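hey so u asked for the seq, here:
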Amino acid sequence: MRGLQPPEPHALAYDKPPCTSLDGFTLHAATRAGALHPAGREALLRYVLGPPVAQERVEQRPDGLVRITLKKAYADGTIAVDMDPLSLLCAGGAAAGQTR
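ran it, structure tokens below
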């Protein structure tokens, strides 16, 4: 076809607005990857599909509870949360949202 050129793949730009970081969370609202940019799609999928809690911060305690160490202490001084495994699964499911 005349006049139509496939777009050139571009590197992901993380330093452009609207990108922000706060309390250890980063949002890249300006990041995108088109159909002809497989490396960009892979980078976005790795970011989205990453674990919600780093494995280094999760441990099973001898009493059967699961401890999640927080990245940053809460204002009240809390540095970790202990849950039974079922409560942890329920909390993770609730955080993920409902399916349609």
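The chain has two helices and five strands. The CA atoms of residues 36 and 78 lie 46 Å apart.
lmk if thats what u needed
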